Amino acid sequence: MTTLTARGATESRLPPLLRLLILTQLAFNIGFFAVLPFLAEHLGDTIGMAGWLVGFVLGLRTFSQQGLFVVGGALADRYGIRPVVLAGCALRIAGFGWLGYADQAWAVIGAVLLIGFAAALFSPAVESEVARQAVVREESGDGSRTRVLALFTVAGQAGAFVGPLLGALLLSADFRAVCLAGAGVFVLVLAGHARLLPQRIPGRERVRVRGGLGPLLRNRRFLALCCAYGAYLLAYNQLYLALPAEVERATGSQAPLAWLFALSSLLVVTAQLPVTGQVGARLSLRRSMAAGLALIATGFAVVAAALPAGRTGTAALLPAAGFVVLLTLGQMLVAPAARAWLPDLAADGRLGLYTGALSSVSGLVVLLGSAATGTLLDTGLPAPVPWLLLAAVPAAAIALLPRDPARA
């Protein structure tokens, strides 16, 4: 009840544009996660794709999204967020509609690329404007920027929690119904933004597309933040790689994964704002990120410490649950702090470009690191070793954080 009261009080003080953008994140994730969790099974079982091709398609989606975030961010700086968001929503509608009717590999690949590129347009536009508005609000004395960005994170996690429930409900019909429902969500988002999103946002100056990458690549503090954030994302992705392997070892089944994922989402939805409120008043952005990375490293170490006992059964899931809790608590500290730090590191007028670049560079770190992690898990090393090596990644990332943040 305290969390809901605090959240309601925060929302009541937000200006209409920030409310719209935060609700946008909620709607985006509902529509997206109504489809994504069921895509691999549809491709393998319904269409009959080989396992390697399913993995390739899922990788293409990630690449077309994360890898092109920098493009979407640059376009948002140049043309403003309204046309970029509306174009992204239109492409997402077309992509989901196409995917629902695609029954051949080339059609699936085309639809998935369209879905990923749509997110590469609208996500950095929305995220950069939320960060900019949060800074404006902080400078006018209306509250901490990290609290606004924490609320943005909560909205995203709530959407990620509700979306699969909607998809599972519609899956009783067929996968096409799931895709069309996802498209329907984005139709509503498109209509709402066409009506409510301002043509011009005060204080946001448009810049030319060229000329931003050189200063960005020379910005050592920003690149250091990208690498540290990439290490966090690599650790977070172990929810989908190392954790399933451990759950399978402990119980002989993947079924408990759903409960562990639900635990992670519920923790963010219920505890993100209280955690941010307590930490934001006491720690600088750098110290907040460092504390989050340390918690994540501890989560890996908990599993590593328990593995030599070789326990199996339901009780053997306790270390995995501890890992999920510590990883999620670390996420609550790292993600809002990283977004709040970006406006201090970005060049004037290029917040969209830097927001997109953060995702693209950190996504590259995850791509390379995930390949190494997969190899590590398959090498036959003693069970605790991979988890200890994974613990070293976020621990080492603490040293990469910029040493002189512009604000406390």
TrEMBL record:
<feature type="transmembrane region" description="Helical">
    <location>
        <begin position="175"/>
        <end position="198"/>
    </location>
</feature>
<keyword id="KW-1003">Cell membrane</keyword>
<feature type="transmembrane region" description="Helical">
    <location>
        <begin position="351"/>
        <end position="372"/>
    </location>
</feature>
<feature type="transmembrane region" description="Helical">
    <location>
        <begin position="289"/>
        <end position="310"/>
    </location>
</feature>
<dbReference type="GO" id="GO:0005886">
    <property type="term" value="C:plasma membrane"/>
</dbReference>
<feature type="transmembrane region" description="Helical">
    <location>
        <begin position="84"/>
        <end position="101"/>
    </location>
</feature>
<dbReference type="InterPro" id="IPR020846">
    <property type="entry name" value="MFS_dom"/>
</dbReference>
<keyword id="KW-0812">Transmembrane</keyword>
<dbReference type="GO" id="GO:0022857">
    <property type="term" value="F:transmembrane transporter activity"/>
</dbReference>
<feature type="transmembrane region" description="Helical">
    <location>
        <begin position="257"/>
        <end position="277"/>
    </location>
</feature>
<keyword id="KW-0472">Membrane</keyword>
<feature type="transmembrane region" description="Helical">
    <location>
        <begin position="46"/>
        <end position="63"/>
    </location>
</feature>
<keyword id="KW-1133">Transmembrane helix</keyword>
<feature type="transmembrane region" description="Helical">
    <location>
        <begin position="107"/>
        <end position="127"/>
    </location>
</feature>
<feature type="transmembrane region" description="Helical">
    <location>
        <begin position="20"/>
        <end position="40"/>
    </location>
</feature>
<feature type="transmembrane region" description="Helical">
    <location>
        <begin position="316"/>
        <end position="339"/>
    </location>
</feature>
<dbReference type="InterPro" id="IPR036259">
    <property type="entry name" value="MFS_trans_sf"/>
</dbReference>
<feature type="domain" description="Major facilitator superfamily (MFS) profile">
    <location>
        <begin position="1"/>
        <end position="408"/>
    </location>
</feature>
<protein>
    <submittedName>
        <fullName>MFS transporter</fullName>
    </submittedName>
</protein>
<dbReference type="InterPro" id="IPR050171">
    <property type="entry name" value="MFS_Transporters"/>
</dbReference>
<dbReference type="InterPro" id="IPR011701">
    <property type="entry name" value="MFS"/>
</dbReference>
<feature type="transmembrane region" description="Helical">
    <location>
        <begin position="219"/>
        <end position="237"/>
    </location>
</feature>
<dbReference type="Pfam" id="PF07690">
    <property type="entry name" value="MFS_1"/>
</dbReference>
<keyword id="KW-0813">Transport</keyword>
<feature type="transmembrane region" description="Helical">
    <location>
        <begin position="148"/>
        <end position="169"/>
    </location>
</feature>
<feature type="transmembrane region" description="Helical">
    <location>
        <begin position="384"/>
        <end position="402"/>
    </location>
</feature>
